[in-house]
# Entry
Amino acid sequence: MARFWSIYFMSWAALAVALCLAAPSLGWWFPDTGEAMSSIGRRIDGLFYIILWITSIVFVGTQIALGYVLWKGAVKPAHEKATYSHGNHTLEVIWTVIPGIVLLFIAIYQMDVWAAFRMRNYAPGEIEAIAEVTARQFEWRIRYPAPGKPLMPMPQPDDVYTVNDLRIPVGRPVSISLRSGDVQHSFFVPVLRIKQDALPGTVIPVWFDALQPGSYDLVCAELCGWGHYKMKARVLATSEELFQKWKQEAVLLQADDGLQSASPAESTAADQAQTSTP
Amino acid sequence: MPDSLLKSMPFASLAKTADQPVGCGTLQDSWHLAGLLRSLACGAMLLLAAAGCSPNPAVEFTPRTSTTLLAPNARQAVEHTLLTHFGTPDNLVVWDRLNVIDFGGAKATVESLDAKASSSAKAVMVVTFGNQSDVVKNLRVGAPVRWISGAREGFQGDRVTAFDAATRQVSIALEGKAGSAPAEESQEESSSSSKPAGEIAAGDALVIDDGGLLAQGRVVYQRNCMHCHGSTGDGKGPTAKYMQPPPRDYRDGIFKFTSTQASERVTRDDLMRILDDGIPGTYMPSFLLMDPTEKKAVIEYVRWLSIRGEMEKRITDDLGDFSTKDLKAEYAQGEAAYQAALNKGEKAEPPAPITPAVDALQKDFAEFFETDYQGVVEDTADFLVSAWERAETPESVITPAKARVPDDAASRERGRLLYLSDKTKCYTCHGAQGRGDGPANFEYWKMPSGDGNYPRPGLHDLWGNLLPARDLTRGIYRGGRRPVDLYRRLYAGIKGTPMPAFGGVTLTDDEIWDLVNFVLSVEFTANGTSLSDAESSIKKLPATDKAQVQETKIEKTSSADPATPAS
Amino acid sequence: MSATITPPAVSIPPGDEMHAVHHQPGWIRRYIFSTDHKVIGIQFLFTTLLMLMVGGALALGVRWQLAWPWERMPILGDMLFRTDGGQITPEAYTMLFTMHATVMIFLVVIPILAGAFGNFLIPLQIGAEDMAFPTLNMLSYWFMWPAIGCFMLSFAYDGGPAAGWTIYPVLAVLPQAAPGSGFAQTLWLFGLTFVGFSSMFGSINYMTTIINMRAPGMTLFRMPMTIWGMFITAILQAFALPVLTAAGFMMLADRMLGTTFFIPGGLVVNNAPATVGGGQPLMWQHLFWFYSHPAVYIMLLPAMGMVSDMLACMSRKPLFGYKPMIFSMATIAGLGFIVWGHHMFTSGMNPIVGMTFMVSTILIALPSAIKTFNWIGTMWGGKLQFNTVLLNCAAFVSMFITGGLSGIFMAAVPVDVYIHDTYFIVAHFHYILFGSTLFGIFAAIHFWFPKMFGRMMSDRVGQIHFFITFAAFNCTFFPMHLLGIGGMPRRYADPYHFPYLEHLLPLNQFMTYAAIVMGFAQFILLFNFGWSIFFGKKCGRNPWNSNGLEWQAPSPPPHGNFDVQPVVYHGPYEYSSPVSGENDYLPQTEYMPRRPDQSQGH
# Structure
């Protein structure tokens, strides 16, 4: 029975590793293609894989060590006594220093990504916000400045509004002003690897880019009430040209007085063209 | 209960093991183990059985209060009518009379019957479809078939077993023998089933996947909408009680934010717009990214629920003579008086029981049922079908006769004067500054039912919910912020609310546009954004200071005399 | 054991013998309002096991919804939502996971470690006859009940609190923000306060007892790891808890007195009048996590201590690196105070502060690694007794490794940005709180059960329970890592609204099946527990041949614990010592001559 148990412990670890190895091919990995669609997202993925490698090695090593000592205990002859030892200073030092070095490496290595993500690049002054995203129960209300104008902190008469539909130009870093209209929400675009809480009472600039045109899911990642799961929205990345064209169309649609309406059929066609590009 | 099960009941085995001397031997230990495992397994099975045997709750349509107050047989008749023509959420009925609803399914005609491949249980045929290409594309095996002409007309239960889109060849499993259709279906069906049913012939018309769209709508509705709007569409789902404003009650056939004339129903496009944009300022979220077919299906389902609800309301209202409401109220009054008297120690007679009166009502209704009831149902159905049909016609949609008046300072000023004039009396509800704090929000109003005043001061909507006038300074327009949306709000009012219709009579088109321009500007004047046309948003300004300045200005104006504003 | 060794004279303080003769109080004072630490400990144990079932049932409700969203939910749906076909509502779902966390954290894990095992073991293991403040101890148990009452009562109002156990403002502060933010939330906060009082009473008592009431010869570095775990936990609690209590009172004031500590102005929630105030919701997160991160260690360190004791005993081998274990535990506790910000990397806190918290968080992995290696080192070359206790302890180590390693992902700020508030974090903390702590607790229940009730639990049934629980646990929680990597956010009543999560449904269903198996497997434990109290094999004082002082007392120990005042001569881990002769253990009360070649020890 003792041997069975040591195998039992080994087998769970083996299964876990097997599952992780099989997961990407089963589709249980990063969403969509598995590849991040923003430049910072790719660096985050790189960091993720480095940590994954390190932790996997440690996981396998420690689980094998655990299984091994269990097995040794299981096969020990009945008359033999346990080794009498209170510890070993050298070993203690070794397994303090080596993890220390590895952890230090992880800590220092990631600083650069974090700095690039939040501190070094595209400070709010350097890049203009393309939209104000207001999270509220349970939708994202988005306000763009009129074509050719900067985003103002207060609503302007010629602003363009959408709901659950954030349009960004592809290929250049963009910034949004993230606000909350009621409770705390979180702006989470899994494929772009971006997440930022919308804090009530604070406007938070969030900057990111999309490397390829496409429609990316935008979800809420902070509990905001019963409809938390209903905040289904998208970030639609299109070429700069299409983005500007869409904005022009949106201005017309928004000024619809029932007579001179911009033809909606045309704009939906443009949408389809945009979504099907990737 | 079978003996073997009794023996394996957990307590039986427990009792046995308890008799055994408890010791430390291996043998006994393993015996305990066996008993323990057996009793655990049995316990788990019993638990599961108990959970499984309790009747599964089903989604239900709940009757209106006014229906439940009808005399018992009248209520039965109404509920039977609804059950026949609409079914239950789990068993929807396609009622042909409701041709305003797209129930889904593909209409087809039998082109030729493959006699060789057919048998008494299966028919193989080639059919011609109408032009519902997307339905044909989505045709699934197992879809129900309904015959609308020919020998099998009226039979239900036939199902598609195979379908080839290219050759349009369909195999249909025939349910039972002709003529053996259950008689307790609806009246129409039972009448048709009495005919000797014959063989399928070329030229027979049928509907494949009958009610498929409605059923899909039900699935979408139950997943996304039901917990607020309720299974019946009465706006009383379990979550509804936490919401301000409460979710819409579809059962009156009234939707607030429509593009139609004041007296018309809602259009499919309006509902689609509400689904896409949500209703800002309420808990109705945007379902922009929902699958378009799902959106279409759920809209049909909501329209169908609305028709069902209004059908019930109208029939029940027509049967008002058979309502026990007054009797019950009277009895309750008498009972209260009797109790009060008893409490005081006085002698009093208990009120007469209402049973005889209810019996009399029942008797009356029995007569009414024989003579007029079917007519009431028919008339209601006719009325509803024509009303919903009319809503989809272009004439019912409000289209401004004139283009929008240019949004300049003069127009806004004209609008402001209109806003503050006695012609529109906007300020009585929305307040002189547009903050939704007009005096009407603090007065007591009469209930439309004539039962005296509402218990709380303030404006109420048709459903009896407190409804403060919109605060225009927040820049939230529930029916949409396009000029045409506001135009329609002003032209036709907001249905089911005290917001009146100004179009056609009170205001001219130009005046409405002026008012629209003013209303759209209130948000910015109140929040301090300069509206001096062109360069408005370029200027960087500390918003708060400006807001105060503006506010004090308006305040002075309005406190002096709301009707004659200073320039 | 050899009689030739004469122990050196140890002076026993006069008056101590008198305490051995206690008068027996009446039934109520003996079993209900008892001041005896053992009875209180067992009361805590029963209560928390009951609550474990409640919390587990709530968890199954959550899993049910994730596997079969919007289908009939047995019991809950049948009872509350009949006209909707037993389909629960999203706010009922938020209530389910909020109360699952609340019950599991505040009514199970914290009280079972500190309350049940802390109470039972501290006086016994340090050779005291009771706690320093027995009445305070009684109060600490009885303050649990108003807390349980408040939490249970909160279900009755608007379907229960539904702002998550972290009760972030503004959601939890404004009654109009969520269905459960009404009176239910107020009751919840009262419950939290009562739990806080209970823990505070306990921690003061433990500190005082451990510092003042050790038996003669029981120096600090002869204390078992359990005591060290409890001691450090008590210190953590004493310093961290006031912050949470204060924050809780601030929130109560916001809710009831109209203050605005956490509410900024201008928010319009559910069409109520706009909020007025200049509060900062972020402040709640700082205050809350200042307690709740140390609370993670409050929920772990005692289990670490107990597992160290049990592993040494079941390996018949001294603990590997006794002092490094203590120091690493203290380091974890100390660092635990300066890492709270890692819960807030995406909260809008200054990113530079995030960098600091990242470094301190990564540092905390170091002492954790040392502990893991030392546990493996303890088993290395041991004569392992493959019984339920050892299996659960080994599971503790294995799960702690997994949970610890997934923590590294979270500590890396950029990766955390992606993983934060997804199922990855759910997997991580279940591996620590369930995988580690609860398996440690299972081991501890089996290990100290004979001392509590004088009878053994069935080892065979215990192994079956372990077999099922361990397999089902991993099947339930390991795939959660993959859900998290797939970007599935926490606390979603219906993740399948999103096309990119639709393919995760089968995985979720598999996990739910595993969770149901795991839930039912706990009946085996309860059955074994209940059965063995009455019908278990009787045992003597020291069924495990263990060294600790508690095994020198009768089983179960009488009021006053020891019939002979114990005197301690050495540390608790002298297993298989060459000087112990025939036996492979040497109780702490037996004299051990110092050997010149001894590398480490007292």
